[in-house]
Input
Amino acid sequence: MAGDGNGAVNGAEDQLKHDAAKGRVAVHNFDPDASPAQKAAVAGKAKDQLKEVQIDHGNSNVIPTINIQDVDGEKKMQQTDGNVTTDLDDTTPSPPGAMPAVPAANVPEWYQVGWRAVSGIDVPPLPEGEEKDHSVLNAFLGEQFYGDWYHNAAIIVFAVFASHFLTRFRFGWGWLFIILAVCNTYYTTSMERTRRRSRDDIQRELVKSRLASEHETADWINNFLDRFWLIYEPVLSTTIVSSVDQILSTNTPAFLDSLRLSTFTLGTKAPRIDKVRTFPRTEDDIVMMDWGISFTPNDISEMTPKQAAGKVNPKIVLSVRVGKGLASAAMPILLEDITFSGLMRIRMKLMSNFPHVQIVDICFLEKPVIDYVLKPIGGETFGFDIANMPGLSSFIRDMTHATLQPMMYDPNVFTLNLEQLLSGTPLDSAVGVLQITLNSARGIKGTKIGGGTPDPYVAIAINNRDELAHTKYKSNTYNPTWMETKFVLVNSLSETLNLNLYDFNDHRKDTLLGTATFELAQLQEDAVREGLTSPLLKDGKDRGELKYDISFYPVLKPEEGQEVPDTKVGIVRLTVHQAKELDHTKSLSGDLNPIAKIYLGNSDTAIHATKCIKHTNSPVWEEPHEFLCADKNSSVITIKVIDDRDFLKDPVVGYMSIKLADLLTAKSEARDWFPLSHCKSGKIRLSAEWKPLNMEGSLASADQYTPPIGVVRLHLDRATDVKNVEATLGGKSDPYVRVQVANVTKGRTEVVNNNLSPVWDQILYIPVHSLKETLLLECMDYQHLTKDRSLGSVDLHVEELAVEHDDVEYPFKSTGVKEATDQIRLDKGGGFKGTLHYKAEFVPALKLKGGVQFNESGTSALTKGVSGSSSSKGSKDSDAGSFRSVGSKADEAGQDVPNGVTISEPSKKTHNKGAKSTDTTATNATSGTVGTNGTTETSDEAQGESHDDVGVEMSKDELLAQQSGIIVFNVVSGRLAKKARVEMLLDDGYWPCFSTNRARSTKASWGFVGEGFVKELDFSQVWIRLNEAEEGDKDDIIAEWRGDTKGFLSSTLDNAQTFTLNDSDERGTSTVTLEARYIPVPVVLEPRESINNQGVLNVTLLDGRDIHAADRGGKSDPFAVFTLNGQRVYKSQTKKKTLNPDWNEQFPVSVTSRVAADFNVELFDWNQIEQAKSLGFAQIDLAELEPFQATEKTLTLTSHKHGDKGHLRVRLMFQPEVIVKSRKNTSTFSTAGRAMTQIGGLPMSAGKGVFHGVTGILKKGHKGDGSDDSSVPDFPAGQQSHPVGTSELATSAGNPFPPSSSSENLPVSSNNEPGTLRVTVIDAKDLAGGDAKAYAVIRVGDKEQKTKHSGKTASPEWNESFNFAASSLTPKLYVWIHDHKTLGKDKMLGDAEVDIWRHISSEGVTAAEVTVELHNGSGLLRLRLEFDASVNPLTRRSSTSSGDRANTSRTLSIASPSRFSISGRRRGGEDD
Output
């Protein structure tokens, strides 16, 4: 043993020596018997050997090779395929079931998720006529054959065919037994399933009948409650005490010092659910049950003796302190032995969103039984139960039932809206404002007490609760007229508005004469109700009638992915939370009884007063109050903290004043504590919430509008390597750029499909109003089914392009052209992907004296009504409105505070990206606001007002002489056929300049101000459209008006004008009232931007001289061919045997861009056998032409073989025309790509809706002569075309075809000799029924051809050509579009008729591209017609196609298809 001890000691010493040798820490050896002082001395011996600690002073010049930022930066983004970004961390393996590191991607809309999507229950039913073709099974099989019938029949067929097969090929008995085993197994399984399902169905039905007739026990949940109650009861009691104590403190009567809950417990026995009855036969989303509940803590029948001994009964002790200050005493009031039982009905309405229970209705089917022991005196020891007093107990019980009966005794229900409770929205939060105009009352029946004529006034209430507003009273009349407007905040439209008519009495309570009611739910259909007349009822008897108007203005809600729109009119929810460290020197006792009162502006009347919190210097109120604000920018809020001294004058402890805009800004910065003024210490906690209103003049109103300082000329060239958001589906992004200023879209480019490096080369003009504004150039990916997705953005600051300038006419000047190549910043993650190449330049606007002012300011009765409602209710002869007078007049007089703002926010120059236009532009003049009379103007506003007096004063004629500028529209009001929004369009009519919000009623009132830029006023046109669809959805145009912009401005510059908008039937069904102002902006346009760059070119081929001789006889047979951009547009007649031909032929051609046009003419020598030979060509420069001036040119013919030989003489006249476009029902919104072309800087497209014949816009002759150009031919509705070689656009005037009737275009032939008509079926779009396997059937005469069917798509492409014989006897071409069905009959998608000779002719225009609208369906079909009169198809095979179809007929029908011919009857026609 001793040896083992010594070994252990030696081992320990070796270990100590080993640790000391490491040198990392000191190792000390002590004598175990030494004193602590000696041990300390031993430890300090090595003090002199300690080394000084090295300190890094941070002055190293060494450059680190690794830093954290670089490492993180490398991990952020990595390029993989050149366009897809991935995260390097994605390669890190994660355990199964781990939470994803990044947010999950949104589920695409075309996924089928959940039973509703899979079952198709939400899919709308098929239209009539399509249901019968839905399925072959539906047509031939009845319902009795569905279900297991298929399986049973299939097993029989399988057994028969299998046994026959085995017998036929001589298989043995073993195989037959295998077949028998398979059938037996199927039969056994099927029978088991059938019996199990039958048993379950029977049991379920029995349970349903028992549920409805019998009560069930709920022992399982009672067992759970018994255990859970012991844990939850202390928490519940604590919560109740903390809440009730605050209420008792604020409601303590004046003769008591305090009320407190000193003891509170609900006992140890849990409430029980005695019985449950369920009602299964209710709607699918309704659950209804009857619960028998009881709370009987004194019942010990179900307890063991041990549990009964430890039971705690409910006990509540209320400590009432009587007296004041030191001379006070507490008196306990004891409430115990509480019992409660009753039968309750619970009804729950379910919903699909969380929390899935929307509404819970609770009511008692019978009066509950309530019992208790109340000892108000003596406490627990000497207390006397008041129930022993005769009649008192029953009196209290009856009072309790009388209070609860209207709340939750059947048939009344107590409703809990769980959806609203869990959404975070306060229950008392206003959802909008009611504007009530009380006009008059007639035939009032009633007299004053004691006789006399009544003095009637109307008081407004909701659900007969507190009075919200009232009118003035009218003395001594039975037929009063008020004409007063009141504004009332409403929390729900499911309530009832009560208009109570009272008789005003001086010295006694006012007498109720009658009540008119209005269900607010009616405002959900139409928000404006005018000319209402409701009977005045009292005790069920008619007491007269009341005439009034009601309008509802809802609170604006943010759309998905967007911010709340900013308005100047809205509802303010002001919450006074608490105060701290109030100045106790204002009270002699050192304790305050603080009250907080809210004032608006310089008003002496408080709009709200909090409860009084007694004996505290740090009160907690947590009281919200909502009020209507007419101008957010000028409203000032004052909070006074007052000490309540009962019978003495209440002094002001401290106060604060702050602008509402600054208070809202402080909330966004998480600051809610503000110091109090006029006191030594103290601060108060406030918060405000702004809820914008959809009210007239609230969005972009006239008094909010600030005139623009100029425009930004933005040349969007291209983008490279943009983000690919469609890589998952194997596609590419479809990018376009939209330009936004303060979240308002001001311009957009065209869409480039399937391209990650798009080239737009487009010029936009964006009006700007301040140097502080920022242009957001956002690259977007176009989506057809969903909303467009952002690919990133680039910020462009106006202050980089312009500076202030000391010039009266132009206060700002440009700093030059900014040419930039900026990286595109992604919205999420803050990374960059792609670059945007653009140029930007500022062009100043002319400063007009007086700014922009409108005669129709668009202000509603808000200012008058709200300002009038700020007065007190001291007299019924004043407009009390919705505000109350709080406190006595003597107190108010002694509570005056100095005027002015005590708390102000420092001015900031940063631009708020998410703000609306009213945030970035200052308002020069603001309308009156409730209580904002004392708002002091800042120096900037005063300076802005003085600036309005400086500028150039111009007459209307001088303004209209300016060609380019900004038109400011003020859309005042309208009378609409349907609720819609107004869109204003200029020039091309493709994108709206701006759009109002959708009208809430057919009697609309907007007061909306928007603007658009005009490049050439003389050639511009303006459109007013009514769009029933919401912004961003597919357009639904219900009416429109269009006219000349100059004439429109001339009529609206002076006064507002009313314009009648026509629908498709040309009936005046809607009117819109608006006015406009014009601000000149001197813009120098590039040639390609001018309207002079596009239009119709009228060409006259005069003659030729000294042309080359191609024939052996020294002559030629010349004809000329004109081509535009590589496409043939005209072929002249052939002149035989001449070198000096005379033609004198005229034709028009549409030119999309004169600057970029490649227009030339080539002369050929006609040969009957061989191919025509070229005699020379000449180029024609269209950019040199002067508009409206005929120019004669002599062109030198050039040939590669013969050199310069011969001349051609032509006469050219170019007529500028605006090219009209439409987005209605085009591929822009119905397919995934937007097919556009570009003219100058304008995105162009053609589609359905523009093919109804468009009149000329510029019917002008040469400058100085008053001649008009030729009229445009009237095309039949549904057809439009242009000669092959022009852009695929619908031109507005200058028809490219001869302006004559269709008969004059017919082939010229004495014997009706046919020529060859080549029809190319190109494509179709917007076909009815969505995706289809479409094919086309074409007929000319009695000959019919059919294309191949396409893949399943709504925009099929065929590009198949067919040849037909055509002459003057075949005027029409018939087309039918069908959907190919593998099983069943093909479905017709539409049909069309084409007037062949309206679009082409045998001489002149021989080829044209035709777009025709389909009838008996929807969609557009595009064809190309080419006619060759020199080739007779009857002499050879007359039809070829891409499908190599052989000609089936050599006979030309000379009449329309006969109804007796076999092919004369079309599939899908009316006869089918």
Remarks:
- The longest strand covers residues 327-350.
